[in-house]
Amino acid sequence: MNIYKRLLGYVKPYRWRLAIAFLCMLAFSMANALVSVAIYMVTKGFVQKNQIVIDNIPYLSKYFPKITSVALPIIWVPVILVVVFILRGFFDYVSNYQMSNVGILAVRKVRDDLYRHLVYLSHDFYAKGRTGDFLSRITNDVGQIQGAITDVITDLVKQPLVILFNIPFIFIWGGKYALIAILIFPLVAIPIVLLGKQLRKLTKKMQERTGDITAFIGETLSGAHIVKAFTSEEREIHHFEEINKSVFNFFRRTIKITIIQRPLIEVIGAVGAAFAVWFGIKYLPPERFAAFFISLYICYEPLKKISKVNSTIQQSIASGQRIFEVLDSKPTIQDKPGALVFSEPIREISYEHVGFYYEFDKWVLKDIEIKAKHNEVIAFVGASGSGKTTLVSLLLRFYDPVQGMIKINGKDIRDLSLHSLRGLIGIVSQETVLFNGTIRENIAYGRPDASLEDVKRAAEIAYADHFIETLPQGYDTPLGERGLKLSGGERQRIAIARALLKDPPILILDEATSHLDTQSEKEVQGALENLMKARTVLVIAHRLSTIQKADRILVMDKGQIVQQGTNEFLLRLGGMYKKLYDLQFNL
Ligand SMILES: Nc1ncnc2c1ncn2[C@@H]1O[C@H](COP(=O)(O)OP(=O)(O)O)[C@@H](O)[C@H]1O
Ligand SMILES: [Mg+2]
User: Could you identify the atom of ligand 1 that is nearest to the CA of residue 359?
Assistant: First the structure.
C-alpha cells in the first residue's frame, strides 16, 4: 500500500486536471442516470403516440404529489434522447481526456526519474544486474503503472458515482421489485472476484517472463557477432522459442479466464433479469419495465470495474516495486557534501597503501604504492586478472579503495567533486564505445560545443582525418548503434580523437590496441603517441612494444606491484618482466 501511495504521489502535481476530471465524472454520472429517463419516455411515446403523460411512478407520486402527472408534446422524446447522450458523451470525453493526460504525464515523470537515476548509479549496480532487466523496468513496468494509476482513480471515483446516481432511478422505475434485483447483484461480483485472483497471479508471472524476453533479445542482439561466430543461431532461436512459449502459455491461460468472465457474468445477470422480468411482466407497465431494466444494466459495468480495482492495484504494486527498487538504490560513489571543485594543474598522482576487493575479503589489489609526477608516463604490465583495470578505474572513482587512499596534488580524490575529478581524466580502452550519432558528435562527446575546426584538428592528430574524409558524408556520417560501420582501428582512432578533444591532463589507456591487428595497431600507435604528449599517463599494454618508452613500468602480479623501473632496468633485473618480455619477443 505504501508503494501505491508513492505511485499516487506522481499524480499530485496534476491536481487541477484531476479536479476537472472529477467534476466531469460527476456530471457524467448524472447524465448517465438520465438514460433510463430517456428510455422511459421513448417507450411511453410508442404507447401514447401524440403526447406523453408521465404518471404512476411509485416513489415520485408519494413524495411529490404535484408532479405526478406531467404532459409533454411528443417532440420532447427525441430531443431529450439526443440531449442526454450529448451531455453524457461530452463529460465522458473531457474526464477521460484529463485522466489520460494525468496518466501520461505521471509516467513521463517516472520514466525521467528512473533514467536519471539509472545513469547516475555507480558501477557496482550495473555489475550486479542485467541490462535487459533495467530495460524492462523502464519500458514494461512503467507502462504497466500508467494504466493502473489512471484506471484505479477513475474506477474508484467515477463508478461509485454512476451507481449512486442510478440507484434512485432503479427504485423509481422498479418500485419494490427493485429490491429483488439489488439482492441478486452481489452474486455477479462473486465470479469476478474469484477469477480476478487467479488472473492476478498469472499476469505477474507473465510480466516476469516478458522481462526475460526483453533481456534475452537485448543480450543476443548486442552480441550478434558472437552468436554468428559460434553459429549458434539455431540454439539461440530455440532458447528464445522456449521463453516465448512459456509466455504464450501464461498468456493463453490469462485469456481463458479473461474471456470466460463476461459470459459467466452475463448468464448470472440473465438469471437475475429473468426474475425481474417475471415480476415485471406481471406488475409493471412496459415503459417502466424498460427504464427499470436499463437502470439495472447501467450498474453492471461499474460493478465489474470496481470489483477489479484491487487486482489492478496489486499489479501496479508489483511494477511499482520493481521501479522503486531502482529508485531507492543509492549510488555508492557520490560527492561529499561541499566537495572540492578541483582546478589546479596536476603536480602528482599518488596511490597510498591502496587495497581493494569487489567481494568481501577477496583482495584484488594489495598495498599499492604509486607516485606519478607531472607528465610522467607510467605503464602497467601483468597477466590478465592481475588487477590492472581495477587499479586505474579507482582513479576515476568507479569504485573507492577499501584501504588506503588515492591523492591528486596531495588531496584525497574522495574529497573532490566527481565532475571535476572525472573532467581531469581521458580514457581510451579496449572496448571502444561509440554512440548513435554522427562522427563529429562522437568526437565532440566530451565538448559538445567544439567547433568543426577543433574536431578536425583532433581527428588529424589521431590519424583519423583521412578515412573520415573518404566517407560520403564526412564528419556528418551517422555511426549507427555502437559504430558498427567502422573497422576496429577506425573506431579506436575516433575514440582517440575524442580523448584528444577533451584534452585532459590525465590519460588512461587500458589495452587500447589489444584487439587490433598488427596493421591497425601501427596506425593507432602513432595516434596514441600524439595523445600521450604532455599528459600524465597511466597506460596498460598487453604488447610490451608499446610501452618501452614509458618513464616507469610497474609489473603486477595477483594484485601487487612486484617489480618497477624502466624497460632496460627491468630487463637487466630479470624475473617476471624479463619472462613476459621473452614470451613476446623471443618466441
Ligand atoms: N565487477 C567485478 N566484480 C567482481 N570481480 C571482478 C570485477 N571486475 C574484475 N573482477 C576481478 O578482479 C580481478 C582483477 O581484474 P582486472 O582488474 O580486470 O584485471 P586485469 O585488468 O589485470 O586483467 C580479476 O580476478 C577479476 O575476475
Ligand atoms: Mg583489464
Answer: 4
